[in-house]
Amino acid sequence: MRALKPLIVAAAQTETVVGDLAANLKTHRRMVDEAMLRGVRLVVFPELSLAGHGAGVHALKLALPRDGDALLELARCCTQVVAVVGFIEEAPGAMFYNSVATLHAGRVVHVHRKIALATYGSLDDGKYYGHGERLDQFALPDDPRWRIATPICADLWSPALMHKLARNGATLCAASVSSAVEAVGTEFDNPRGWDTVLRAHALVYGLPIVFANRVGREEALHFWGGSRIVGPHGETLAQSESPGEELVIASLDYDAVRCARFDLPTVRDAHAIDAILASGASGNDIVSVP
């Protein structure tokens, strides 16, 4: 069998200046340039990386159309890398979404709108953004074995959404996240929770995950970073231990995905299970036991 070329990926752990598009674009260009110098093929930025975690209240000023000049300018910098960046999207009909755009070679090649809006604890997505209605994926240019899904933050806490993207053929998850220690509540350990969720999804579905979380502070929120790349057996391949900005880089082997899904065929079996659930054969009746 011919050797399969590894894929070098990176999580761009960055600090966002709320509402300052020019400053955030400068950070993105710097990270993109470094990623290309280091041979990275896919670089993932945090959620709302061009606008700021709490920027929804300023959506009228900060929102960009998916063909906006700022996105296309950044896309032109991505000559040798595919970049997933977070922004406030203004769609036709004056609708606003918490979205990520995938950029490459001067084009916006894919956009995902956050589906599971986080409106709990200190999180106010539902006050400013509409729910996304699609869970698409795209093939990595020049290497279609890698089918990439780009769920945003709370999307990854929905088992149904993660099941669907894996069942539909995703072989890599680019996860843009904006997670603060205090976001959910004082009794909720966000860093430990994310570690559990990422490992579980990767292990159960044989699905590598590039997890990009931001750093810094916004008002009372402390963003803890911890960006990492998780392999298809649930193993951590690389992880940030820094409180500051950095690229977290790892090499992914597609053959490892093949082996993980052969050894633990959750994705294969999902088709049969979904068919049973869709037919209603799972049963909702309560059976009395004599």
Tell me about this structure.
The protein has 290 residues and is of the alpha/beta class. It has one domain (7-279): 4-Layer Sandwich (Nitrilase/N-carbamoyl-D-aminoacid amidohydrolase). The protein has eight helices and 14 strands. The chain has a six-stranded mixed sheet, with helices on one face. It has a six-stranded mixed sheet with strand order 6-7-8-9-12-13. It has a two-stranded antiparallel sheet with strand order 10-11. It starts with 6 loop residues before the first strand and ends in an 11-residue tail after the last helix. This is Nitrilase. Residues 7-254 form the CN hydrolase domain. It comes from Paraburkholderia youngii. It holds the Pfam family CN_hydrolase. Keywords: Hydrolase.
Give a count of the beta strands, DSSP E runs of length 2 or more: 14
Q: Cα-atom Rg, whole angstroms?
A: 19 Å
What class, by secondary structure content?
A: alpha/beta
Largest sheet: 6 strands, mixed
CATH level-four homologous superfamily name: Carbon-nitrogen hydrolase
Q: Helical percent range?
A: 25-40%
Mean pLDDT: 93
Strand content: 25-35%
| Topology-level CATH name | Nitrilase/N-carbamoyl-D-aminoacid amidohydrolase
Our measurement of the CA-to-CA distance between the termini, rounded to an integer number of angstroms, reads 59 Å
Q: Order of strands across the biggest sheet?
A: 5-4-3-2-1-14
InterPro entries: Aliph_Amidase/BUP (IPR050345), C-N_Hydrolase (IPR003010), C-N_Hydrolase_sf (IPR036526)
Protein name: Nitrilase
Pfam families: CN_hydrolase
Domain CN hydrolase: 7-254
